[in-house]
Design brief:
Organism: Stakelama sediminis
Protein name: Probable GTP-binding protein EngB
Structural class: alpha/beta
Helix content: 25-40%
GO molecular function: GTP binding; metal ion binding
Bound molecules: guanosine-5'-diphosphate
Radius of gyration: 16 Å
Cofactor: Mg(2+)
CATH superfamily: P-loop containing nucleotide triphosphate hydrolases
Number of strands: 7
Function: Necessary for normal cell division and for the maintenance of normal septation.
CATH topology: Rossmann fold
Length: about 200
């Protein structure tokens, strides 16, 4: 399916603009600059499917991508969080949009929470993890930019992240380490997504 057609469907700045919930969905979350756009592009083999949006004041939107023809499932790029200088109303809007989406989207099968391999889970990530646990949306933690750390450091952050995930009700115990740059973990992540949308 990842080799077939994948196309941008629409952006939803508010819940009333969501597409009809007709197929399973998998959503991507992560702090700004975590490598979310790069990972989406690596997964789909498209260079510019997801564009970076690193401007704090920018509109916060959910971006939907159709996978397969006939349509099989959708990828949802959730707005990034954790901008150092984000205006308060932007943060509030993010919180309401993401929380309402997570709680109300029956077709949402899985979320992928992206965490930088160099940093591990930080306080800035706890809000989305709490929201996912609260909404009972099962999620996979995905380490990004694994090429930027040594193998021993990667093992250590994997172990720390695994221990953290075990304490959370909706977290999948397997943590995936990826590098969009090197293609590491990408086939495994595709398999995890296909598993989530077909079970
Ligand atoms: P986003 O804000 O989460 O969408 O992050 P981007 O995908 O725009 O990536 C942020 C920065 O990290 C960019 O400069 C990317 O080139 C870099 N980056 C993303 N993924 C990787 C990776 O796997 N390895 C390395 N070395 N750099 C990456």
């Amino acid at each position: 399916l990842f080799a077939g057609p994948i196309a941008f469907l629409k952006s939803a700045p508010q819940l009333k603009f969501l597409p009809d919930p007709v197929v399973p969905e998998v959503a991507f979350a992560g702090r700004s600059n975590v490598g979310k756009s790069s990972l989406l592009n690596a997964l789909t083999g498209r260079n510019a499917l997801a564009r970076t949006s690193n401007t704090p004041g920018r509109t916060q939107e959910l971006n939907f991508f159709d996978v397969g023809d006939p349509l099989a499932f959708r990828l949802v790029d959730m707005p990034g969080y954790g901008f150092a200088k984000a205006p308060k109303d932007v943060v509030r809007k993010w919180r309401f949009l993401v929380n309402d989406f997570l709680r109300g989207r029956a077709v949402l099968k899985r979320a992928l929470v992206l965490i930088d391999s160099r940093h591990g889970i930080k306080p800035v990530d706890t809000e989305i993890l709490d929201m996912l646990d609260g909404a009972a949306v099962s999620y996979h933690i995905v380490l990004t930019k694994a090429d930027k750390v040594k193998a021993t450091e990667l093992d250590a952050v994997l172990e720390r992240t695994r221990a953290n995930a075990r304490k959370r009700p909706a977290a999948h115990p397997d943590i995936l380490a990826t590098s969009s740059e090197k293609g590491m973990g990408i086939p495994e992540l595709r398999a995890a997504i296909l598993g989530a949308v077909t079970d």
